[in-house]
Amino acid sequence: MAFDPIAGQVAIAGVGEADHSKASGRSARQIAAQAVERAIADAGLEPREIDGLCFSGGMGEAFDAKAFHECFGTSQPIFESPRGGGMVWAATAPAVAARALRAGEARHIVNVFAVSWATDRDRMTGGPGQFHAAERFKRNLEVPFGWFPQPVYFATIARRHMHEYGTTPEQLGAIAVACRRHANLHPGALMREKTLTLEDYLARPMLVDPLRVEDCCLISDGGGAYVMTTPERARDLARPAVLVEGVGEGHSATGLYWSQQPDFTATPQVFSAPAAFEMAGIRPADVDVLTLYDPFTIVTLMQIEDMGFCAKGEGGPFVAGRALHYDGGVLPTNTHGGLLSHAYVLGISHVIELVRQLRGQAAAQVGNAEIGVYGGYTGAMASTLVLRRDR
Amino acid sequence: MSDDFPLPDTSWEPTRPFWEAAARGELAIPRCGSCGRLCWYPAERCRACDAERLVWTALSGRGTLFSWAVVERGWVKGLRERAPYVAALVALEEDACVRLVSNLVGCEPAALRMEMPLRVVFRPLPFPDPERQVIAPMFAPAA
């Protein structure tokens, strides 16, 4: 689907992350509240000034107006949309906000996402696999053969990509190594203390051949939030404004049934990224820093191809070596460590990292970053968000 | 997860004929009565021509290996016990765009090759309780 042009209509004025962790016993609501509180404070606002909320209608914590008021003791009217949160919606919530800001329905809108999946997984009450096991065609035609959960799907996709294009373990490993190096520099990253070299990566055993544990995302408790308003208002607030310049979304015709996807080694970024780049008036070569929803290394690689940073099939050679590193790489990517090494908070921290990069406040700061892009992905969908430093 | 995980619910109507066919040693897939295309996963209407009449049809059971994953260390209860095992996508001879999720038998993982010819065999899904046996279409090298 195409979005109305919204370039220059929305700014991100504040960002906040909860403490990311392994299983912590915290509820997703507690985590969401901490992230929201920090994002509001970062913007220099008070909770009573928030009059809009975007949250996840399907995944993670539905942090709605009622939850907000219970946490902050407030009572103001709040515009609500369940078309926010993480994953693809971390990119598209600004389109929801643009409409609400234009219509005068809200002035300061928070998009929030939080999960307690590390805690839930330990209690066997949730986690990323649960959603797929509950889908009845998958439950009856895939699960019985052990084609489940996600690492098995993406190992199958990675092997096909290797077959079609000659992609190598060294190339997938380069993605994991870049993310780990960035996480080592990031104070909030779960993998801050654990280093990873390409030699380490290659020596690790297979989890689901051809993927190693290092090709797969973490499972975490954590979350994040960002505050949206008009660029005019944002310029009066505490932080340098970061402007939303483009939004896009794309869908796979086969939805969550990856096994039947005709173009098995592609993502719906082929539809999403061009739309967002056109709205923003940019080309892939203009992008200074990229964050990609990265449940697996192969998903990073496919999105880089599908967004047009290189030709299809050339993602392997493109990402090799230090290409994705923040300091001198041709395309600095997931400069906070991504889902692989920062925290599995489903993309909300990817957007927060871009905001920090464009403010010049990131831990692994890319020199003179002006344009940042986030690529969201669910398997069935992809989305793209283009952000620009305020001039 | 239910006690039967990862066994299928063979009585669930949309996929019941698939499991009934497997129990009698046939690989069956819905075929559109109007345009003749295979329709997988099962749907109420043909995805190609939107016709409503889909007929479960026995196929040759021949196909090729589209891709696979070797689950070296299972971590989901019910599947962990099977590891190591090969989960595969098999492109069917009648329409290579239709890929069946299945398991490979009679072949070491190291001997697997992309596009290698396969033939269907019928085997019980591994499960601790022998009373709960479900026969499934699996694939072996065709040679």
State the main characteristics.
heterodimer, A: 391 residues, alpha/beta, Peroxisomal Thiolase, Chain A, domain 1, nine-stranded mixed beta sheet, two-stranded antiparallel sheet, 17% strand, globular, B: 143 residues, mainly beta, five-stranded antiparallel beta sheet, two-stranded antiparallel ribbon, 1 helix, 6% helix, 36% strand
Characterise the protein shown here.
Helices cover 36% and strands 17% of the residues of chain A. A nine-stranded mixed sheet of chain A has the order 3-2-4-7-1-8-11-10-9, sandwiched between helices. Chain A has a two-stranded antiparallel ribbon with strand order 5-6. The mean pLDDT of chain A is 96. Chain B is mostly beta strands. Chain B has one helix and seven strands, in the order H-E-E-E-E-E-E-E. Chains A and B meet through helix 6, helix 7 and strand 5 of A and strand 3, strand 4 and strand 5 of B. Strand 5 of chain A pairs antiparallel with strand 3 of chain B.
